[in-house]
Amino acid sequence: MSQVEPTALGNRELRKDLAAIRRRGLAIALWVLAAIDLLVFARTTPPGSKTVFDLNAPPAFPVPAIHLPVLATLLVLGIVCALLGVAQYLWKGNPRTYLLLGIGLALSGIAFLAWAGRGARVDVEGLLMTSLIEAVPLTLGALSGLLCERSGVINIAIEGQFLIAAFVGAVVGSASGSLWLGLLCGAVAGGLVGLILAVFTITYRADQIIVGVVIDAFALGLTTFFLVSLLVPNQMTLNSPAVFGPIPIPLLDKIPVVGPLLFNQNIMVYLTIIILAIVQVTLFQTRWGLRVRAVGEHPRAAETVGIDVLRVRYRNVILGGIVAGIGGASFTIGSTGQFAHNMTAGLGYIALAAMIFGRWRPLGALGAALLFGFFDALQFTLSALNAPIPSNFLSMFPYLATVLAVAGLVGRVVPPAADGQPYARE
Amino acid sequence: MSDEPVRPGGDSGAGGSVVAAIGRFFLSGNTIIVTFLAFVSALFLGAIIIILATPSVMAAWGRFGQAPGAAFAQSWHAIATAYSALFIGSIGSPRGIVGAIASGDGHRIATAFYPLSETLVSTTPLMMSGLGIALAFRAGLFDIGGQGQLILGALGATLAGFLLPGLPIYLHLPLAILVGAIFGAAWGFIPGILKARTGAHEVITSMMLNYVALNLLTYLLTTALFQAPPRYQPVSKAVADTARLPHLAGPSLRVNLGILLAIACMVGVAWLLQRSTLGFKFRMLGANREAARVAGVNINRQYILAMTLAGAIVGLAGTFMVLGVDHQVASGYGGTIGFDGITVAILGQGNPYGVGLSALLFGAFAAGGRTMQLDANIPLQLVQVLQAVLVLFVAAPGVIRTIFRIRVRGAGRVFGGWSG
Amino acid sequence: MRLELRGITKRFGELVANDRIDLTAEGGEIHALLGENGAGKTTLMNVLNGLYRPDEGTIVLEGEDVHFDDPGDAIQAGIGMVHQNFMLIPVFTVAENVMLGFERTRRFGFLDRRRARADIRELSARFRLEVDPDAVVGELSVGQQQRVEIVKALAREAQVLILDEPTAVLTPQEIQDLFRVMRSLRESGKTILFITHKLKEVLEVADRITVIRMGKVVGTALPSESDESRLASMMVGRGVELQVTKSPPAPGEPVLEVEDLVALDDAGQVAVDGVSLTVHAGEIVSVAGVQGNGQTELAEALTGLATVVAGTVRIAGRDVTGAPPKEVLRSGVGHVPEDRQRDGLVGSFSIAENLILDVFDEPPYSRRGALDWNRIHATAEERMKEFDIRASSINTTAATLSGGNQQKVIVARELSRDIRLIIVSQPTRGLDVASIEYVHRRIVAARDGGAAVLVISAELDEAMQLADRIVVMYRGKLVGPYDQNEVSRDQIGLLMAGGSPAEVVAGGAS
After folding, report:
1. ipTM of the assembly?
2. What angle in degrees, to the nearest 10, is found between the helix axes of B202-220 and A347-357?
3. Residue C225: burial class (beta carbons within 10 Å; 0-12, 13-18, 19+)
4. Of A219, C73, C388, whose CA–CA distance to B389 is shortest?
5. What is the pTM of this model?
6. Could you tell me the CA-to-CA distances from C22 to A164, A226, C36, C59, C199 in Å, in that order?
7. Which of B142, B336, B389 sits opposite A209 (nearest CB)?
8. B110 CB-near residues (< 8 Å, 6+ apart)
9. Which end of chain C is least crowded, N or C, by CB within 10 Å?
10. Chain B interface, mutation test: which of C348, C367, C374, C419, most B Cβ atoms within 10 Å?
């Protein structure tokens, strides 16, 4: 068509505007990081202080600890961060929007550690290890939320799925003596909670947020009830499962630093990586993923091309429950073994936050989960260092970061268009 | 909760005989009958859970082949013991109450009324948080941040309570209540203004602020300002006597002025929603945001106002707890009450009087649950399960209608999702 | 492919939306289904599309009975549908939208995007649709999106193509493009069912016409043997066209004065582009134009709902540019919004509450922040009588009312205040004939009572007949004003299509 298309032009311009706003926001975020680095950290560092970064050596290749002069490190990293901000500001048509911010955050993390650990040793390997392990349930929970929300069902029940699966995993793992059976039953239990959510929200079209909140309360009550009435009197038989041990991957686990971190972990870590990869690829590259996203964006359009909206939603909500169930099992048979009262302590909600922070994308969710896990792990490191930062403020970080993200201060996050809306055929 | 608007004044104009009206009421799957059936279903599920959790009863079922009667008898016994303990713990034994009043012995009367007093003590914060959340519901907002607002309210009241000793009670108490409300309001204001200014969904922001508040509380309890002197334990200083809510029935019963203030708040919220122009704006916003905008309502201002007001009311829940019962705050203060307020608001269908009744029911559950744990050896958390099942069924009336085969036209929905 | 409907009946409770509809469309034919809004056209199409199941009757394709349980079955049988509200996913690319539901995959269910793109390019070239498979649908114009919908149907090898009111959202230029595409589809042997209520378009493009009214087929016609007035009388069921009777205007002082107004739409784009307009007391000015040319935003800008970036709006001499809606309403403006269910009413509120939606905080309905329900109810009873609102009581919820009664509630509310200016958008969209006449009468009565009236309507006839003076809105700008008797219907039509005013009006083109 030869004529001018005003709408098309307009929208493209609008998108350009939005991209510019986001670019500016990201650049400012980077500058703020640089400013904290240079103005807060560097100014409070006595000259000549040093920080030792311990990188525990695997048996084959011992890695020496790194001794860093704090002030110099801060200056270099601060300037790099500021330059990244400039690059971000100038880099038009930027396809990898969050790449530079990610680098900036990582650098700021190093700067912070150098500052907080001045005159002491920082156990970097331990820090990263803890972050990764903390990130496992968060990632799985976020993937659960993502599977549901991409099909248009809000899953606030992640916390409840975690709790029930953690409970079932511990009891079955303990009673049967088989961890694999425990994991399987945990996953099935998560899936069943997913089924409850599905029946109430999809078939009966009850409010998704209300049902999610109530399922969480139900799960907390039920698990605590049976913990007190059944597990506590039978601690040895019902609540003493073994835990999955690390499975070293031959050769790869010998790589310095990275090896023990990534290739000598237990099955939960590997499973998380596999599930993440599968969801990432299938969501965007397969027929299943295309249909799921269509149902989450515009269910009526999906129905007019013959897609059974309700079935897609049922399948995804149950799948999401199973994934969260695996994450829940990791609380007991994946790490501490015993089930304890309210042991997930709101991590299901942080998982939800990680999904939002990761912009409803699997890899984004992983990034957010790692970041949140890092901040959690940092508390232990800092208390070991006696750093002058109350750990409560670090605990607040994931929540505050999520508030800022949904408020659009660093780029706006946009949920699937039909997220949260019950669907009824006409 | 906007699909069940309470009609202001007047009846709904339905004609026909009384019998026909009652028939319609039952056949139409009306809210009250659904709530009642949901309650029955919850008790039934609870009974199954009690059986599962009682080893002797399970053992009896194991011998079902030999002695089927024993299995039923033992089950009945376990269920009856638990539920009667729940009842006696929340209301008291009717015979005991009559006997105590007849005896005229003050101590005996106090003991007989102890369960009721405990029920009212538990009801107070549930009613306040339920009212705040219900108010936000009616304005189309889902305030999931009750926990944080309650903590902030408690913090504010505590601060005012111990910082200003020596004030007369008629100044100190109202001041402490006011400060608690203001602190809670501030915690509601944040999601409100974020929604108004940036469109950030209040479910996410208010939920996140719960955890910020929890951490803030834990941190403050390590500071010299808040922490109680020898500073070993994470508890705050105690509020002065002049900032405490007076007891209503003598020092041995914990029931205090808080319950009366909560009832006054309930009437106030009902008036606000049904009789005031502000409430009319809130309800318009909750029922149809676009129409409200076209009719000249400043939507963003109402969002901020509604969230702030909701925060203040939920903040008063924490305030009344501190000033009436606990007199100091500890780490994790308030427990799940801010969250239970959501279920109370849902059970009450967003109607202030419904919220009051729901809070009374949950308060009775809480008080009775403690007795049940002591007397029947059934963990207190059973009531949490009962509450959740009850609310789940009320939130999805279709489920109850299916179970009990009640026919009805159309199912309502409450809330629109992230982008709503 | 020959499509035959035999005795299709569809009921919704008491309402019979389709009553024993018979219709036969041959392959290689453009068959128009003509009817008023609410005549049952869309219901029939949803039956054909598998979204509804008919209560009675059969669908016959090439002589065989077919039954559709869901849209998938209809697609399978070769029926493709272009919905009035496009069924496209804005964040998907054209290729993703087209392949959705019948995806070609490689191993393990991986999407074969290359094949999908190639298929789209091939179809696009064959029917000259000019669709880019990699464009994101949300960034396309309405006309382009419609072509994506057509590609979607063709890619599924549809033999019968149903177009539901396809021209409602198009510019005249785009309509011509659509007709060209429809003809080329006909050449290739497809059956096209063209649903519309626009007489001219039917005469221009259809091979055969079936007219339905109130759910029943009232006749068939061939364009060559028919004309507009005959079709109109079949469609409306009366010999005469809708006619508004009104006395000559007696314009007074200017009430609404708009100068060089520039306003943005929701997406932040300029939608009203330098509009100047004056409406006097006691006259009706109509804004005609194809929908989507900035009329919605003009009404919103005047009432404080859209962002004004330049220019001034004065009402009764007071500058209200950029004032919030409340202030505009308070300065004596009544506003009947175009989407009554979304913007004009609160569905779950009672009639009484809806009657005070924008005056609840003024005396006598409230005092010092407290509502006076006795007063509100008494007033509601009066209004129901005065405006002939048919409902069981003032406590009936608005959502349960018919469209006509809903509009009467809004009109009652907006006209019962002390108003100097009324802004009415799409006053009679989707209403039955009796309600249309009633609303028109009320608008004229308000003018005769001395109010200034601005009517915005996409229905050219309505705009013409209500107007004392008429302006045409095209791409955010106004052409005119003209006195009603100064211009012909055809001339206005050309202006709506973007014709140059100098040529159209001065040259007397028709």
Report:
1. 0.84
2. 130
3. exposed
4. A219
5. 0.85
6. 59, 66, 18, 10, 21
7. B142
8. B249, B250, B252, B253
9. C
10. C348
